[in-house]
# Entry
Amino acid sequence: MLGRLTQFLRTRSKARKLEHYAIPDALWEQTVSTLPFVQRYGSDDLTALRELATLFIAEKEYSTAHDLPLTDDMVVSVAVQACVPILRLGIEWYRGWHGIVLYPGEFIIRRTVQDEIGLVHGVVEEASGEAWEHGPVILSWPDVSSPGAGLESDHNLPADSYNVVIHEFAHKLDMLDGEPDGVPPFSRVLHPGIDAEAWAETFLTEYDRFAEVWDKYPDDAWEHPERLPPALRVIDPYGCEAPSEFFAVASESFFVEPASLRQHWPVLYQSLATFYRQDPAPGGS
Ligand SMILES: [Zn+2]
# Structure
């Protein structure tokens, strides 16, 4: 009986959220019109995405830094992009944290890194996004609204797949089972028959392959993408940093440039398709 009551209350609460936080038609259409990678979904998926984005808005707390005014456009744009990866997973995959903080531009991250001989250094770097374990997702609004705009002009994008929202929310999925390691958790219900260890082995082999290819190039090679083989232009070379970053940048390519990723990295594409339960390249479902 208790189970039924809980179910009833949950359904009622979901219906209330969907009604109370409903995204107006004009704002929904305007948001989708700025996001080509969202437009490829069919009408059933778009309906599901709109519902997920509404629940996301109901459950998350948005704030801004440096007096940046928070607008409905911002709230909806982040929600829609963030919900693309969980379209076939569900809102529960973003459980355990609430905050989204938008900055008026890139922001400073201070962290410590250990060098090859074990010395620890303080590093200060500019970032367009950051995801904290159990904490907020921080995003530079110019990077969210027009990908690439936040990057310095002398930095060519190695691929058109840049998407800071997908990147940071991929980290959130990876963090669901602890420290980010490039291997997200799998659900017995949603991923029946998937051997998580085999998945991890395949994914990490792809990471090694990617990092090894990049090892042969000088550090500044990605500033001249036209000289690189096509396979290296599909995924941001930042993925070489660690398996967790590889998962995040490969997820960007998977959703934003799926056809190229499938063409040049078919095994990696298939791994991500298995986890996300989506096949976004043309001809997929
Ligand atoms: Zn990252």
